């Protein structure tokens, strides 16, 4: 695979996962009024999305790609 194409695909994946993590973090606040079990499940889901975002960010950093967020 061509390097610029691989970088572009990784950047696109990062942006998608970052948007998903932000959306799930917002849902945690909405779920907090529905009880502790729902809030915990939403919080766990948001944490997993944030970890996926961080993993992609570290891969991009290793490649020398800097994203201005």
Number of helices: 2
End-to-end distance = 27 Å
Order of helix and strand elements from N to C terminus: HH
Q: Which regions contain 5 or more consecutive residues with pLDDT less than 50?
A: none
Gyration radius (Cα, Å) is: 15 Å
| Biggest sheet character | none
Query: What overall form do the CA principal axes indicate?
Result: elongated
Strand content: under 5%
Per DSSP E runs of 2 or more residues, the count of β-strands stands at: 0
Q: What is the helix fraction of residues, given as a range?
A: over 70%
Structural class: mainly alpha
Mean pLDDT rating: 87
Notes on the structure:
It is a single chain. The protein starts with a helix and ends in a 6-residue tail after the last helix. The protein is elongated, with a radius of gyration of 15 Å. It is built from two helices and no strands. By secondary structure, the protein is mostly helical. Helix 1 (3-31) packs antiparallel against helix 2.
Task: Please describe the topology of this protein.
Blueprint (H helix, E strand, L loop, with lengths): L2 H29 L4 H28 L6
Helix pairs in contact: 1-2
């Amino acid at each position: 695979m061509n390097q610029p194409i691989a970088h572009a695909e990784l950047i696109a994946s990062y942006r998608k996962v970052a948007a998903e993590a932000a959306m799930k973090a917002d849902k945690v606040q909405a779920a907090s009024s529905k009880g502790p079990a729902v809030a915990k499940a939403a919080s766990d889901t948001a944490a997993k999305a944030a970890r996926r975002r961080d993993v992609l960010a570290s891969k991009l950093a290793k490649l020398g790609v800097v994203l201005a967020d």
